[in-house]
């Protein structure tokens, strides 16, 4: 019990430190991409970078395009590592499914499959958003 508690605290501390670093880095990058856009327009720029109508305001539209480009480049940088990690976990889940056929193993295999497939979907969706947001012929 004590070993598990101490181990959990140590692992939790490392995980927390890693997540804090990662999220702070992501927020700094997002703020750079948002640039001079007024703070009340940040939500509209974030939404436009991911989905929805193209903003009519050129400043919000440009910020959304920069944000989508930043997200796309971040995804491209991490994609190999994520696909390897998710792929290995998928293989483990499938092997476990054959060794121990259970609903839990099937759910894990499906989740890891969706994670691997999601990498290609996200990249495709972000490329589409960048094209839409930077298209000069779009009337907003």
Set out the fold topology:
Elements: H1 2-34, H2 42-50, H3 58-99, H4 103-134
Tell me what the structure shows.
The protein has one domain (35-134). 83% of the residues lie in helices and 0% in strands. It has 4 helices and no strands. It has helices at residues 2-34, 42-50, 58-99, 103-134. α1 (2-34) runs antiparallel to α3, α2 (42-50) packs across α3 and α3 (58-99) runs antiparallel to α4. The relative contact order is 0.10.
List keywords for this structure.
140 residues; mainly alpha; 4 helices; extended
In short:
The chain is mainly α and 140 residues long. The chain contains 4 helices and no strands. Helix 2 (42-50) packs across helix 3.
Low-confidence stretches: none
Nearest-integer average pLDDT: 89
Instruction: Give the percentage of residues in beta strands.
Output: under 5%
Helix content: over 70%
Task: List the domain count as a whole number.
Answer: 1
Oligomeric category: single chain
Structural class: mainly alpha
Please summarize the sheet with the most strands. Answer: none
Number of helices: 4
Give the end-to-end Cα distance, rounded to a whole number of Å.
Answer: 60 Å
Order of helices and strands: HHHH
- What is the global morphology? extended
**Gyration radius from CA atoms, angstroms:** 20 Å
Number of beta-strand segments: 0
């Amino acid at each position: 019990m004590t070993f598990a508690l101490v181990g959990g605290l140590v692992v939790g501390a490392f995980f927390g430190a890693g997540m804090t670093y990662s999220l702070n880095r992501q927020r700094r990058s997002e703020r750079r991409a948002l640039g001079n856009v007024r703070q009340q327009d940040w939500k509209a720029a974030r939404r436009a970078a991911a989905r929805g109508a193209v903003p009519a305001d050129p400043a919000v539209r440009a910020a959304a395009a920069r944000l989508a480009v930043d997200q796309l480049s971040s995804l491209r940088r991490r994609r190999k590592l994520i696909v390897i990690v998710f792929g290995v976990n998928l293989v483990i889940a499938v092997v476990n499914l054959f060794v121990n056929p259970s609903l839990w193993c099937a759910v894990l295999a499906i989740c890891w499959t969706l994670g691997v497939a999601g990498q290609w979907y996200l990249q495709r969706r972000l490329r589409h958003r960048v094209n839409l947001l930077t298209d000069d012929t779009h009337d907003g």
